[in-house]
Design a protein that fits this description.
Strand content: 15-25%
Structural class: alpha/beta
Largest sheet: 5 strands, parallel
Shape: globular
Radius of gyration: 20 Å
CATH architecture of the largest domain: 3-Layer(aba) Sandwich
Number of helices: 11
Strand order of the largest sheet: 2-3-4-1-5
Number of strands: 12
Length: 315
């Protein structure tokens, strides 16, 4: 990435990131928000990689929460710690000796996550760790459900107290433009037909102590139906594990988005989040073309981010 490849708003973001990570005693973190596809993660990732220090950590929302929950659980089992102490130690496990923490895709929809993320913010700001965050939500819009919003108000106050905000809201969703489809998630496709594996390949994929039926689990490829992925009690724990274990996925029998129930919709959104972050090529197989599928996504929180990311695919 060079400054000549950026639009004016993205160049201004690079300047803001430089100020946020400057080696001064009064440097503040930076909370970057705006619509999907404007380049928030792309710019912040490139800037983070260029920082001349090893004391830096990048986390993605889903992977971070999974690592944090596992560390809390393990510490409580092994060391007989109370929950508050286990949480503090678990946050230290994730952040380590970092002086810069980059939190990609920061969002809050769950009341339990709200409490945990508030604890995280309290801890990292107490340790004077510089936090860079990207989000589709302005700080005051986090945990948007009015019933639960008050639970994250302390976290929002911490963001305002310790971070500057930068809105990247240009008119172009860059994922809708032409893309290099040679590798990663963008080399995947959305198609209306595919030859399915032989029924004899049906098996189970194991994650920790749980088993999940799948169409096929080849050494280099996971075949799984939408029903197996999203209509059973799977979670981001499984998606993260499978994204590491299988370098390519095929998801079959994807219904129109509006025809899936709310839980299945959210699981599909979360799976796309994980697969994009892991840069896994995926073939999505659906009777509906991509445009028809996306026409039913307007009512679901976070579906706008999924819709933008699916534009990366070959059709």
């Amino acid at each position: 990435m060079t400054r000549s490849t950026l639009d004016d708003d993205q160049r201004a973001l690079v300047d803001a990131l430089s100020r946020a990570t400057a080696p001064t005693s009064n440097a503040r973190g930076l909370y970057i928000h705006g619509p999907a596809g404007r380049g928030k993660s792309w710019v912040a990732n490139a800037f983070f990689e260029s920082l001349p220090t090893t004391r830096k950590t990048r986390v993605h929302f889903h992977g971070f929460l999974d690592a944090l929950h596992r560390s809390i659980h393990d510490r409580r089992l092994r060391q007989d710690r109370d929950e508050a102490d286990a949480v503090t130690q678990a946050i230290d496990d994730v952040t380590g000796r970092s002086r810069v923490l980059f939190f990609d895709e920061f969002h809050v929809h769950d009341s339990g996550d709200a409490r945990l993320l508030t604890r995280l913010l309290e801890h990292v700001f107490r340790q004077e760790i510089t936090v860079i965050a990207t989000s589709n939500y302005a700080p005051d819009d986090l945990l948007p459900n009015p019933i639960w919003h008050h639970l994250f108000e302390p976290g929002i106050a911490l963001i305002h107290a310790h971070m500057d905000t930068f809105e990247l809201d240009g008119p172009t969703d860059y994922r809708t433009l032409a893309h290099d489809h040679s590798s990663g998630f963008a080399s995947g496709s959305w198609t209306t037909s595919a030859a399915l594996p032989d029924a004899r390949e049906a098996t189970v994929a194991r994650v920790r102590d749980r088993e999940f039926p799948v169409l096929a689990a080849r050494p280099d490829e996971l075949w799984i139906s939408f029903a197996q992925l999203c209509e059973t009690p799977t979670s981001t724990i499984e998606y993260l594990e499978w994204a590491q274990s299988f370098p390519r996925w095929v998801i079959t029998d994807i219904p129109a988005f509006a025809d899936a129930d709310a839980q299945a919709q959210q699981r599909f959104i979360n799976a796309v989040d994980v697969l994009v972050d892991a840069d896994v090529p995926v073939t999505f197989v659906s009777p509906s073309g991509l445009d028809a599928f996306l026409a039913g996504t307007t009512e679901r929180p976070d579906a706008f981010r999924m819709a933008s990311r699916l534009q990366l695919l070959r059709r």
